[in-house]
């Protein structure tokens, strides 16, 4: 099957145009061509979108290859431009190629025409594919950049623990602008050299074993405030760390503060319960003892450790017949959410 080829010929000789057309047809091209010999005719022809190549004579009564090349460049079309002439000298041909022409073929050596056309068509196809790939890459990078900027977590790239890139959220976390972080060692964020070394050793050991490394640490912001941080790092190439490591940083200060506040609250509540001279027990919906106090332990004559975490019926059954901590459940005692106040029956 012949290869379709649309050729715009800038040629004043109809016979020369015919010879060129026949040579291309003999080479296996299914040819469609148009001949122009003036600037206006070429501009009109270039309004058609599907030309594959331009073949131009060097000198014509009303036109020239150099003028045709300028019109092609002005159109913004990336088409191979080959000069086919019987009069052009090598010096002039080289000048035109420097100006943007892709090749030249002498009319008295037509054997070079088909190889030159095939080569330049392939080069043009390669350029189109590169432009498509570059456009797709630019679009992809723009989308990724938008995602990284909008992500509600610090993200960055380090090489040998030196910042190469960071997103805006990391700047909000640390107080340092991306420019202030760029090229600086991550050591600037740590309270001490020892903590910097500890985090590096743990993370990179995990990366070596698992492909990613995570750790909790503390960073010092630019304003001196200490924040709790959860770091997770993954190398771009696990076998070549020089390619860089991508990391995420999550500020968990509020989470850690909430955990500490909860722990302190539980300690206060347990102290309060321990100092009440009534048996107080918290039981789950399946009658498992969640928490009890010393007064209940004395009542049952069992250590607190033997009571908490046990199933009430199975482990604490007494001569009362029912689980003693559930004896008064009908009155609202002993249920999860309500707790229970226990006195011995009698």
Could you explain how this protein is built, in words?
By secondary structure, the protein is an alpha/beta fold. Helix content is 42%, strand content 22%. The chain has helices spanning 14-26, 39-45, 65-75, 90-99, 113-150, 168-174, 178-181, 193-210, 253-274, 294-300, 304-307, 312-316, and strands at residues 3-10, 29-36, 53-56, 81-85, 103-106, 154-159, 162-166, 213-220, 226-235, 245-251, 279-283, 289-292, 341-342. The strands form three sheets. A five-stranded parallel beta sheet has the order 2-1-3-4-5, sandwiched between helices. Strand 11 (279-283) and strand 12 form a beta hairpin. The radius of gyration is 41 Å and the shape is rod-shaped. The model is unreliable at 315-322 and 326-346 (pLDDT under 50).
List its salient traits.
346 residues; alpha/beta; 5-stranded parallel β-sheet; 5-stranded antiparallel β-sheet; 22% strand; disordered C terminus
Quick rundown:
The protein is an alpha/beta fold.
The strand order across the widest sheet is 2-1-3-4-5
For the secondary structure, the number of strands is 13
How much of the sequence lies in strands comes to 15-25%
Shape: rod-shaped
- State the helical fraction: 40-55%
- Could you report the average pLDDT, rounded to the nearest whole number? 85
The helix/strand series, from N terminus to C terminus, equals EHEHEHEHEHEEHHHEEEHEEHHHE
Structural class of the helix and strand makeup?
Answer: alpha/beta
């Amino acid at each position: 099957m012949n290869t379709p080829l649309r050729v715009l010929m800038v040629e004043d000789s109809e016979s020369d145009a015919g010879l060129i057309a026949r040579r291309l047809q003999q080479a296996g091209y299914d040819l469609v061509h148009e001949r122009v010999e003036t600037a206006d005719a070429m501009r009109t022809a270039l309004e058609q979108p599907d030309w594959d190549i331009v073949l131009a004579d060097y000198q014509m009564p009303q036109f020239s290859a150099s003028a045709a090349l300028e019109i092609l460049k002005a159109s913004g079309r990336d088409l191979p431009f080959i000069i086919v002439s019987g009069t052009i000298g090598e010096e002039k041909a080289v000048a035109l190629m420097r100006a943007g022409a892709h090749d030249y073929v002498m009319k008295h050596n037509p054997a070079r025409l088909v190889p030159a056309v095939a080569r330049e068509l392939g080069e043009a196809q390669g350029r189109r594919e590169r432009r498509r790939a570059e456009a797709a890459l630019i679009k992809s990078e723009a989308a990724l950049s938008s995602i990284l900027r909008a992500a509600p977590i610090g993200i960055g790239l380090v090489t040998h623990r030196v910042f190469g890139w960071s997103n805006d959220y990391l700047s909000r976390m640390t107080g340092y602008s991306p420019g202030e972080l760029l090229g600086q060692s991550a050591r600037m964020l740590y309270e001490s050299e020892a903590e910097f070394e500890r985090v590096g050793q743990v993370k990179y050991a995990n990366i070596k074993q698992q492909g990613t490394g995570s750790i909790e640490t503390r960073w010092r912001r630019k304003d001196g405030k200490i924040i709790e941080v959860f770091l997770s790092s993954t190398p771009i190439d696990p076998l070549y760390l020089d390619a860089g490591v991508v990391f995420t940083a999550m500020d968990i200060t509020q989470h850690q503060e909430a955990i500490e506040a909860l722990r302190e609250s539980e300690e206060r509540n347990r102290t309060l319960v321990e100092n009440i001279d009534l048996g107080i027990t918290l039981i789950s919906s399946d009658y498992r003892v969640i928490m009890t106090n010393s007064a209940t332990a004395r009542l049952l004559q069992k250590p607190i450790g033997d009571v908490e975490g046990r199933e009430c019926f199975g482990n604490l059954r007494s001569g009362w017949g029912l689980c003693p901590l559930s004896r008064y459940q009908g009155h609202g005692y002993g249920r999860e959410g309500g707790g229970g106040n226990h006195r011995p029956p009698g």
